[in-house]
């Protein structure tokens, strides 16, 4: 860990002002940032401690839905009665992630910004375009069992590790930020993450010094079933090989609405409208579920040891849809 | 091995040249032996006051952080320390190209390991240590240290280098053993199995990383280290440093797990010692978790070709178990894959061979039950395959091949309850509920199956000594350079002494893990309890004789109980008999019994697993082990040892896979997030049962090793259950979901 | 800087990079909390901070100047053990002891979470938590134990939680007449 300046902010205005310093980073839970700083994968010159900011509550919004403060710890969010009642997929996703200790510290905002667990990103002795732009991707042609099959580029095949963010994607969350100039913006989660392309080091649309202050969820889908299914190598405390977050509402035998997002497959929490289109307005049949899987995986590309993720995702999605539709 | 440093004097020595039918543990009346007593060190462990290597509070300590090579093979050409030496708080950057150890040492060796770090033999090899006034500064400086290398081509790919394989020299077992003609038997037998099983490299992943604090007092070194075998570790350290072994003291009171990875010295010890000498102040060096993975020791990957030939009666006519493993060039330790195969089943034609591929990957060495832990995977999965081909119940097949004499040496077994363990286990587990046809039982999305495997682990005795003193206040002290790595040594040695001397366990002070105490073999190979336990036994036997003399009675007439010596119608407090104190040293040595009898502990593993029919995820639902390992010294700690072994088996079967990048020899999953040791949720309530047994050929306490019995056979029981559950036979371990997917039912 | 640990105020001058774990281990002589991985992957460093169990290796000391910190040393000491510590001894919920302080702090924090009604991945119904063995195992999965005392750890925690006390050790002892 390199030395850094440490500043404690009392409010959001002060925080974003402090964060204008070169190579400044916000720190809240710190569970991912400090992990990476110890390995000198992250080397901020300044940490702005935002844990004293009043960004802690979960509050109903006038227009329906809830606003989740950026500093709400993962465990509190998962256990919140409103979240359990209206957004069960989010509770389930949070509880499927990390450990009790980590969930107690990790925050809502920080979880969205988790960085990949790619072996090579974590090893500063190897090339990695995400860690060191232009150095090359060691995962392509290397050990890539845990890496992505969708949305990759020739520069990077890293997966996004968050479970929470997958549920947020299925729930059409909106990320609320404050910029250093005081401007606030609301970013749909579908617009928040960036695919690696030629710049895998840039993972979101956040600008330097821009602070996540809240995440908003739209009103709940009445009468919908929720599911978060995570496939992993251990029964607990392991990252997803594949995960499915789903919110599906039925009208008799017909799928009235569906939102489906996927983890473990791509550099960002993955969602593809074609998957939902394959089932919405149609009867809940295996044939339609298979079509949804086809749509999901049409462009999937394995890299060798992660080839299995393609059939695994297919099977997991179909089984998830059966459960979500009560079939 | 310890002869050189075993002193002479008033001591009770025993070489196991003949059976020892009578044990004082059976005639003493204190009633503590075998009892499930709580660990005597328990309160210290649960309150955080047990002191592990890195936790000694020592003044003026410099913090050392080790630096590993960033190439897989080649030469260090320059270490440019100028920039980091200029960092505030950095004291120095130290290396010693000749003296730093390149490879850790294997357990029990009394020589220095391979030294010299200018040559880089594997990625992460420790080449320097950065010293600073704080850990934070040292860590930062170590990461910034600039090292230049000449790269050399390395051998990293097992498959690509298999034609370079060599036959290593014999170790515990010969590298190659053949008897009869397996090829011929295979062509003649009505039923055969030929299959190749592959197991990956594994890491012991003890929770405490390797750590040393080195303190010099003039020319004498005290090293607070996390080591399983302090007596031989001190010899290794002395040889590495070129000083007299009398000048090295190792203190290892508490060891945060070892499982073989701390048998021999690791690089942090020598680096800390050299740095402390140069700086003239104590140095602490704790390996980072990534360094434990990169630069300590692994269990070798194995490729095992199994050949079994049997008659229609199920009786084996041939066993072939030919293995290929790997190690660093120049290292001759080989994973003794076939060690259990030598004595487990009948079969007049036998081929058990071990060859080794030299690879530029970190040292391979002992990890919990070297040999059996992975060798039993090949043998016991092949037996499962054979049972299916024969239409035999897997338990019946094993019973049909149980034997009453060693199949290779024409000598008897010292004790062996294999069939009984299988029988008892089958009843307790409900084996009759198993459907012999795979993939028949389904509960929702889950396919349920049961598997069985024999358990066997060779038994060893190692030269060890211990001193026992009875004090004037009637209390006692037991001291030995034995260690407790979580096995329960503190407790069972106190129980042995308490039982024989009639002293309540709470009045016995234990001193272990200090080479100033009588030398002992330490903890490894499941020999710790029996070896050090026998030494304590012998010391107590002599004390008992002395007490009898003081009482003026025949030893046979003396009863020792609750601190009283009772005989000739008198009852005298021990304190009154011992005057200023009474002491004796006991010493055990292996002898002719080792060769006259094949000694091993046995058991049976049963597993019930659920395989997710959609995803291939495997969950162990139930597991049961029945074990016979001679006298159980403490039913609580012995059971815990078995739980630990069984869980290691779950990891070996399902999750653990140390993966090297074949392009450059780098370990890719070198942390505890991606090297998957089982977590609590992976392990159901495990059931452990013991069969009562005494082994009079093994040692005077009639016990055999138990710490590794629980792993030997555990993984194949799980693997066989996976096959029974879903009908997919995975021969490449671990059985992760990706390997099952293709064989699962269509959705 | 001042830190409130185990009800006492401690003064220490630390590097801004010093983790809460290293503050305790390297500066204050509180070595009960263990460093197993230093990256939040093993749980050996678990402490109770403001009543919540966290990985003390993954937080900076400087961020906890006004936190109430409880380490294993603060839960109980030899002769005056916390009920959870005592249960770990009786159920042999450890072997080498290195993960043990973290397991115990984690278990204490975990039972507090259950008391608040927090669900887990093992909860079929997120609104009605019943502390089964599967619940305990899932909730304790952030604490690795390589010696694998897991079944005994579950036994110890179940007993402290008042959910029944199995005695599998006694059965094993009976079998060998001990």
Short description:
Chain A is an alpha+beta fold and 327 residues long. Chain A has twelve helices and eleven strands. Among the domains of chain A are: 5-48, Uridine Diphospho-n-acetylenolpyruvylglucosamine Reductase, domain 2, CATH 3.30.43; 224-325, 2-Layer Sandwich (Enolase-like, domain 1).
Helix and strand composition category of chain B:
alpha+beta
Architecture per CATH nomenclature, i.e. the level-2 architecture of the largest domain in chain C: Orthogonal Bundle
Number of helices of chain C: 7
**Residues in helices of chain B, as a percent range:** 25-40%
- Per DSSP E runs of 2 or more residues, the count of β-strands of chain B stands at 28
* Structure classification of chain C: alpha+beta
Principal-axis shape of chain C equals: globular
Order of strands across the main sheet of chain C: 2-1-5-3-4
In CATH, the topology of the largest domain in chain C is named DNA polymerase, domain 1
Broad CATH class of the largest domain in chain B: Alpha Beta
In terms of DSSP E residues, the strand content of chain C is: 5-15%
Q: How are the strands of the biggest sheet of chain B laid out side by side?
A: 4-6-2-13-10-11-12
Q: What is the overall silhouette of chain B?
A: globular
Number of strands of chain C: 5
Largest β sheet strand count, sense and barrel closure of chain C: 5 strands, mixed
Q: What string gives the helices and strands of chain C in order?
A: EEHEEEHHHHHH
The CATH architecture category of the largest domain in chain B equals: 2-Layer Sandwich
Distance between the termini of chain C: 55 Å
> What CATH first level of the largest domain in chain C would be assigned?
Mainly Alpha
InterPro entries (chain B): Ald_Oxase/Xan_DH_a/b, Ald_Oxase/Xan_DH_a/b_sf, Ald_Oxase/xanthine_DH-like, AldOxase/xan_DH_MoCoBD1, AldOxase/xan_DH_MoCoBD2, AldOxase/xan_DH_Mopterin-bd_sf
Protein name (chain B): Xanthine dehydrogenase YagR molybdenum-binding subunit
Keywords (chain B): Oxidoreductase
Organism (chain B): Sphingomonas abaci
């Amino acid at each position: 860990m390199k030395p850094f300046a440490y500043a404690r902010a009392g409010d959001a205005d002060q925080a974003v002002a402090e964060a204008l310093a070169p190579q400044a980073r916000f720190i809240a839970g710190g569970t991912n940032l400090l992990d990476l700083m110890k390995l000198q994968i992250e080397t901020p010159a300044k940490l702005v401690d935002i844990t004293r900011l009043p960004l802690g509550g979960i509050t109903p919004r006038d227009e329906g839905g809830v606003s989740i403060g950026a500093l709400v710890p993962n465990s509190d969010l998962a256990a919140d009665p409103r979240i359990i009642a209206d957004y069960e997929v989010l509770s389930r996703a949070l509880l499927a992630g990390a450990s009790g200790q980590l969930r107690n510290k990790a925050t809502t905002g920080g979880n969205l910004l988790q960085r990949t667990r790619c072996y090579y990103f974590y090893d500063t002795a190897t090339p990695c375009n995400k860690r060191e732009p232009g150095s090359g991707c060691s995962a392509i042609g290397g050990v890539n069992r845990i890496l992505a099959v969708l949305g990759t580029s020739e520069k990077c095949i890293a997966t996004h590790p968050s479970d929470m963010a997958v549920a947020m994607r299925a729930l059409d969350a909106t990320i609320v930020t404050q910029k250093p100039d005081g401007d606030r913006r609301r970013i749909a989660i579908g617009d928040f993450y960036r695919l690696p392309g030629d710049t895998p080091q840039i993972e979101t649309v956040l600008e330097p010094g821009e602070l996540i202050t809240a995440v908003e969820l739209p009103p709940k889908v009445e009468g919908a079933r929720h599911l978060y299914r995570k496939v992993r190598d251990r029964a607990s405390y392991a990252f997803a090989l594949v995960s499915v977050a789903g919110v599906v509402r039925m009208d008799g035998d017909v799928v009235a609405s569906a939102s489906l997002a996927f983890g473990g497959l791509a550099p960002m929490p993955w969602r593809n409208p074609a998957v939902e289109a394959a089932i919405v307005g149609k009867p809940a049949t295996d044939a339609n579920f298979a079509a949804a899987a086809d749509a999901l995986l049409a462009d999937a590309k394995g890299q060798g040891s992660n080839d299995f993720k393609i059939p695994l995702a297919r099977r997991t999605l179909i089984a998830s849809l059966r459960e979500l539709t009560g079939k | 091995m310890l002869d050189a440093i075993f002193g002479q004097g008033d001591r009770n020595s025993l070489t196991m040249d003949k059976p020892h039918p009578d044990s004082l543990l059976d005639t003493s009346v204190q009633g503590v032996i075998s009892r499930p007593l709580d660990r005597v060190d328990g309160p210290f462990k649960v309150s955080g006051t047990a002191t592990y290597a890195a936790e000694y509070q020592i003044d003026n300590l410099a913090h050392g952080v080790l630096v590993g090579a960033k190439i897989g093979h080649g030469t260090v050409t320059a270490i440019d320390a100028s920039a980091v030496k200029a960092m505030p708080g950095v004291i120095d950057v130290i290396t010693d190209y000749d003296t730093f150890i390149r490879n850790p040492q294997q357990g029990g060796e009394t020589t220095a390991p391979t030294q010299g770090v200018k040559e880089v033999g594997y990625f992460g090899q420790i080449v320097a240590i950065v010293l600073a006034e704080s850990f934070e500064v040292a860590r930062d400086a170590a990461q910034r240290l600039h090292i230049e290398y000449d790269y050399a081509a390395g051998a990293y790919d097992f498959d690509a280098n298999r034609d370079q394989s060599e036959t290593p020299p014999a170790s515990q077992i010969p590298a190659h053993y053949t008897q009869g003609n397996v090829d011929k038997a295979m062509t003649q037998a009505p039923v055969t199995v030929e299959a190749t099983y592959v197991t990956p490299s594994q890491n012991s992943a003890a929770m405490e990383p390797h750590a040393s604090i080195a303190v010099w007092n003039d020319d004498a070194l005290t090293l607070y280290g996390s080591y399983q075998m302090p007596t031989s570790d001190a010899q290794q350290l002395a040889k590495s440093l070129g000083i007299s072994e009398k000048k090295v003291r190792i203190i290892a009171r508490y060891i945060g797990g070892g499982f073989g990875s701390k048998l021999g010295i690791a690089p942090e010890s020598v680096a800390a010692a050299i740095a402390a000498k140069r700086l003239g102040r104590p140095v602490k060096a704790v390996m980072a978790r990534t360094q434990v993975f990169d630069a300590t020791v692994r269990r070798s990957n194995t490729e095992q070709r199994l050949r079994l030939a049997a008659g229609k009666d199920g009786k084996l006519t041939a066993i072939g178990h030919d293995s290929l493993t790997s190690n660093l060039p120049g290292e001759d330790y080989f994973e003794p894959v076939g060690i259990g195969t030598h004595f487990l089943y009948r079969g007049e034609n036998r081929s058990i061979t071990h060859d080794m591929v030299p690879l530029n990957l970190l040292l391979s060495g002992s990890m919990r039950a070297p040999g059996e832990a992975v060798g039993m995977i090949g043998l016991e999965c092949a037996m499962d395959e054979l049972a299916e081909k024969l239409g035999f119940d897997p338990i019946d097949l094993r019973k049909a091949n149980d034997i009453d004499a060693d199949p290779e040496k024409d000598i008897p077994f010292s004790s062996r309850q294999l069939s009984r363990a299988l029988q008892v286990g089958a009843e307790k587990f409900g084996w009759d509920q198993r459907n012999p046809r795979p993939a028949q039982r389904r509960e929702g999305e889950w396919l349920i199956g049961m598997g069985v495997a024999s358990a066997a682990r060779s038994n060893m005795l190692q030269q060890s000594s211990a001193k026992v003193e009875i004090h004037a206040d009637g209390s006692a002290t037991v001291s030995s350079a034995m260690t407790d790595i979580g096995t329960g040594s503190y407790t069972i040695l106190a129980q042995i002494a308490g039982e024989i001397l009639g002293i309540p366990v709470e009045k016995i002070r234990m001193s272990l893990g200090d080479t100033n105490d009588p030398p002992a073999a330490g903890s490894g190979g499941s020999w710790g309890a029996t070896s050090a336990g026998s030494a304590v036994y012998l010391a107590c036997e002599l004390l008992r004789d002395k007490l009898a003399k003081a009482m003026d009675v025949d030893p046979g007439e003396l009863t020792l109980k609750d601190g009283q010596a009772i005989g000739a119608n008198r009852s005298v407090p021990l304190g009154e008999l011992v005057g200023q104190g009474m002491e004796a040293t006991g010493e055990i040595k292996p002898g002719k019994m080792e060769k006259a009898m094949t000694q091993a502990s046995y058991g049976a593993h049963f597993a019930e697993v659920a395989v997710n029919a959609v995803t291939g995820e495997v969950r162990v639902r139930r597991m049961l082990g029945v074990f016979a390992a001679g006298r159980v010294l403490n039913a609580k700690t012995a059971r815990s040892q078995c739980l630990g072994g069984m869980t290691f088996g779950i990891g070996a079967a399902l999750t653990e896979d140390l993966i090297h990048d074949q392009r450059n020899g780098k370990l890719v999953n070198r942390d505890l997030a991606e090297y998957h040791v089982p977590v609590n949720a992976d392990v159901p309530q495990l059931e452990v049962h013991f069969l009562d047994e005494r082994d009079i050929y093994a040692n005077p306490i009639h016990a055999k090793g138990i710490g590794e019995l629980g792993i030997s056979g555990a993984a194949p029981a799980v693997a066989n259950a996976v096959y029974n559950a879903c009908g997919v036979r995975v021969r490449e371990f671990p059985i992760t979901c990706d390997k099952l997917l293709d064989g699962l039912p269509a959705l | 800087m001042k830190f409130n640990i185990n009800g006492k105020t401690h003064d220490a001058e630390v590097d801004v990079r010093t983790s809460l774990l290293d503050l305790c281990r390297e500066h204050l002589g509180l070595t009960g909390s263990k460093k197993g991985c230093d990256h939040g992957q093993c749980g050996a460093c678990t402490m109770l901070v403001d009543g919540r169990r966290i990985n003390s290796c993954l937080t900076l000391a400087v961020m906890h100047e006004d936190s109430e910190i409880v380490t294993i040393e603060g839960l109980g000491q030899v002769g005056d053990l916390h009920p959870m510590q005592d249960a770990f001894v009786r159920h042999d919920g450890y072997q080498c002891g290195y993960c043990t302080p973290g397991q115990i702090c984690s278990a204490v924090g975990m039972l507090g979470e259950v008391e608040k009604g927090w669900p887990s991945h093992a909860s079929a119904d997120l609104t009605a938590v019943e502390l089964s063995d599967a619940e305990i195992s899932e909730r304790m999965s952030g604490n690795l134990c390589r010696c694998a005392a897991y079944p005994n750890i579950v036994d110890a925690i179940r007993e402290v939680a008042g959910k029944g006390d199995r005695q599998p050790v006694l059965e094993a002892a009976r079998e060998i007449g001990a």
